[in-house]
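Predict the structure of UDP-3-O-acylglucosamine N-acyltransferase.
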Amino acid sequence: MASITLAELAEKLSAELHGDGSIVIHSIAGMDKAGEGHITFLSSSKYRKHLAECQASAVMVKEADLAYCSGNALVMKDPYLGYALTAQLLDTTPACATDIAPSAYVSPTATLGEGVSIGHNAVIEDGVILGDNVQVGAGCFVGKNAVLGANTRLWANVSIYHDVIMGESCLIQSSTVIGSDGFGYANDKGRWVKIPQVGTVIIGDRVEIGASTTVDRGALDDTLIADGVIIDNLCQIAHNVSIGENTAIAGATVIAGSTKIGKHCILGGACVVNGHIEIADGTTITGMGMVMRPITEPGMYSSGIPLQKNREWRKMAARTLKIEEMHKRLKVVERKLEDSE
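Done. Here is the predicted structure for UDP-3-O-acylglucosamine N-acyltransferase.
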């Protein structure tokens, strides 16, 4: 179990220490479950009433909330960020792989940096380049001439297709597929003719991709994911999509081909984005948003239908089917009013 003194933690977080710096912190917990050896955090003042009952050894708070703390505290501008950084310091997640397993296959033409680890039954094909301290989990496949930058980690059963280029310090969760064929076909009198996808996928540094997500290779040009992008589980990134720096995409989102998403965007869960459009830097799309047209101005956009009781929804759906009829009747009424005037 990892542990750290409160004084050491304060120094690493550049936080202001109030109380006993010698106490030892071994884990993080929520305010209602924290006890001895735990540190917790208060990121919203509306929950400050719970501070008096909190049993944690220390609390991370903003300056405005310090007066409500009865015990040890670390004061910082953003306690939630403090929580994230503390979680990193106390993280006990095991490595994706250690050493090179005897059951792994590594091509003699592959290039491995210092400290590379490869798990059982993984396959590293011809021409692959693995940077220093890369970890490849059990059952992974890394295709011909793929490049993984230093400190990148693949959890079990990740598939990286040929020619994919991935930067440094990336994290790819289990069962994700990067570089599979995009959905490209021509129609010959009702018969689908496959178009070989000759582009690849280029991923920047510090990119994290969740479990069972797919990122398709480009049809002609490349699919591009810039530095700092985070993508959740079960997402579909189609061929030739471009995603700008530090954009966040939540689970089950689907992005159609050749769409360009700007920097610092946020896409909520289960969004659907049409192909061949652009989304401006700094755009937020709330969950279940359906983006059918380009977004040229940053802001928050929504289109999902809130949940209703079934009877109310059925009435609304029935009326929706009559919108065209109602529109025609309204036009008739408008013309009659105009004639009477």
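The two ends are 83 Å apart (CA to CA).
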